[in-house]
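Researcher: Let's run the pair from yesterday's discussion. Sequence first, then tokens, for each.
Model: Starting with the first of the pair.
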Amino acid sequence: MPKNKPTKQHYVPQCYLREWADPTVSSNQEPFVWIFDKDGRNKRKDKVKNVLASNDLYTIKIKGEKNYSIEETLANLEGKYAKIFEKKIKRKIPLTEKEHIILCAFVSVMLQRTLRHRDNLERFYDELIERTQEMEVAHQLSSTKSDELKRYKENTHKLGVVQLLPDITELLLKMSVAFLCAEKGLKFITSDDPCNLFNPDLQWQRFYGPGLAQKNVQVTLPLSPNILLCLSWSNLRGYILWDKTWVENTNRMIRSYSYKYFISNSSKTKRVWSSRYPLDFFFILKILKHKVEMIFYRLKMWYRFRHVRKR
């Protein structure tokens, strides 16, 4: 195979990861980052080109031949984003309309391209295929439909990254854009699934996930150890200084949302990153209030249905 074929494909792009290069062990030609297991127990120093990559992750086969058009499309977008970050965002300069579109397109791709997103899709299709096969056996049907689903599963993640790009980008363009800048001496970390949705209204339940159209949803993506992007439907806009409490709580969420690994430009970690809850007095009060409410709710349900249980 020709050497220029991009068989090793990053699900978190190299241009993005280079921002977390440790300046004490890196050179311009060979940047290194620190990669940690999600629980923070194991760490290693590795070259950017070696981490968060998989062979033929976005490669599709057309008439038996490997096609790299998706990877090439992603690489083109990454290059445009990298220039915008270097010339504008890093210098805290407002973006033009075209640059805003490219940024939102980059965020759209980052929401979809990771291994977590692929694995979730494949688990869904595995369950669907299994149920379809059970129906085919029960009704003595041919395996036409389950075979079709297997073929669709093979490329659903790869094609979905580009197929959904216009729709997600259009929605993101309507949201407010804020760049949260860490105070001097502080840093953001990142992860193998760095772009996340969070809705504070949903944090007390497990039934519904956050969605882009929800009123209080926030889309966050650390862009460097110094800057974190936040898209929302609020009036949070521009370049905003983020103090220590906010930075460390943000890092706690970044680590908790990671799939298998988180990334830093330093070998040192902080205990707060592994904390289940923010170290905030008022938030702890909210947790206690919620737990008390749940206890009373369970007691109420028990009292209401106690006679039914006895029967």
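Model: Moving on to the second of the pair.
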Amino acid sequence: MTKVVGVVPARMASSRFPGKPLKNIAGRPLVEHCFRRAQLAKCWDGLFLATCDAEIHAFGEAKGFPVIMTAATHTRALDRVAEAAGKCGLALDALDIVVCVQADEPLLGPDMIDAVIAPFRSDPEVTGTMLAVPIVDEEMFLNPDIVKLVHDMKGDVLYTSRSPIPHCKVFSPAIGAKRVGGVFGFRWHFLQWFTRTPESPLEISEACDSNRICDNGFRQRIAPVPYRPYVSVDSPEDVQRVEAVIKQDPLWGKY
């Protein structure tokens, strides 16, 4: 059976929000919301917190989370995920699935993780997946902190950008705009390829590492989910946005 390993990468030295993983949101540190919500998924053969910081390591151990220390030199979350997956103690085969669950998604749900895994089950040619969340308001569409995506009719990602894509003269939910939801799946061999491959031109210009895949002629399959309030924590101002909706979230009180 194909193994499924999840990694929640977290570091204190965020350029836009230093100390973000341990920032208190509605009574719990951000990283705890993310890890405990990911734990609610039933798919895992192992779920691990990966960090280079002693503070996060100590917090994770105190909460009973399996924690893997990684190098402090990683600048991309997926490099940290790959190192942690290789050190997690599970013998990973090439076709096993590694899921990156970003530590700044306090409103994620287990159905989102299931959605990211589902394309691997239905299409053996899929090597990578990306959570795709509908955008229904113009503010999010225009926000450069939010990474948007466009995909082909098969559901394969063509491009990701911090600019508002697809182009429209007047925004409407009807254009079908989607954002990257912070959960990514990879076959183990494909994640290893990714970390060995140099940064690509579109990756650098857009500051979107998924463009490394597009630039090299490969694709990620979208994992679409229905719309719901879904706020990532990219800046200190996002904390209030999360707290405004999290207590109405269906998972509130279940972890």
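Researcher: Give me one sentence on the second I can quote.
Model: The domain at 4-133+180-248 is CATH 3.90.550.10 (Spore Coat Polysaccharide Biosynthesis Protein SpsA; Chain A).
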